[in-house]
Amino acid sequence: MADLVPSRIEVRDLTLTYGHDTVLDALNLPIPRGKVTVLAGPNGCGKSTLLRAIRRLHTGQKGQILLDNVDIASLGAKDLARQIGLLAQNPSAPPDMTVEELVRLGRYPHQAMLQPWSERDGAAVNRAMDGTGVTGLKTRRIGSLSGGQLQRAWIAMVLAQETDVICLDEPVNHLDMAHQLDCLDLVLKLNQEDGRTIVLVLHDLNLAARYADQLVFVHEGRVRALGQPEELMKPELLAEVFEVDAAIMTDPVHGRPICIPRGRARAAVQEVA
């Protein structure tokens, strides 16, 4: 699939280290335009670091990241922020800030010194709040919100940036099942109706397989496999990457593969022993 759809982002031979630890090791990844790409892998494999590198919050020691064939290292900070939005894990803001004030922060890349707040800025904020269902909460302090409400407010802030590429790092972390579906259905709507390129980090393999056009398994700082969920959700690959012994079935509702873990993969158990 990735070969048939032009890449919006191309990660080439990216190596990124923290001290003596190599987090990303000559990693290559095409991210197709207008598709949902989901990064999955065990804890510490480099998923979040890769997402932050795409937004240039981390800089690799080697390699490059291209956005529409332009090295992101050559772009100005605001220019990049107008093209790629990122919601990192566990974002924070003052609890007495209102939802509307939080969402308005998403317009920062579009502001210039001495430039007044414009009608376009207000319209973008209103669209973002409407799209995430938080318009009725706009005067609420974010410290008073539930987990699901707060996550939707953060997503609204990212949407207010009006970027064509949206990166979300574990957006459903700590949410209950209903709010997980609300969040990911909203992301899917942005992709299908607006054609936005979405890059998600998800731990839940079944959610990853349900929502991904391109599923990517990251393992030990490299891309171990990528393709459609049906291609990657294989028992032997899950045993290698996630160290689980799993049966794979087809979801009777959505037709996507689902993983039923039996337990730890035998090789992983023997290694621990």
Automatic annotation (TrEMBL):
Coiled coil region boundaries: none
Subcellular location: Cell membrane
Domain ABC transporter: 9-245
InterPro entries registered for this protein in UniProt: AAA+_ATPase (IPR003593), ABC_transporter-like_ATP-bd (IPR003439), ABC_transporter-like_CS (IPR017871), P-loop_NTPase (IPR027417), Siderophore_ABC-ATPase (IPR051535)
Keywords: ATP-binding, Cell membrane, Ion transport, Iron, Iron transport, Membrane, Nucleotide-binding, Transport
Entry-linked CDD domains: ABC_Iron-Siderophores_B12_Hemin
Transcription regulation in keyword set: no
Record's GO cellular component terms: plasma membrane
GO molecular function: ATP binding; ATP hydrolysis activity
UniProt topology in membrane: Peripheral membrane protein
SMART domains: AAA
BP term (GO), one: iron ion transport
Keyword field contains Cell membrane: yes
Primary location group: membrane
Family, as annotated: Belongs to the ABC transporter superfamily.
Protein name: ABC transporter
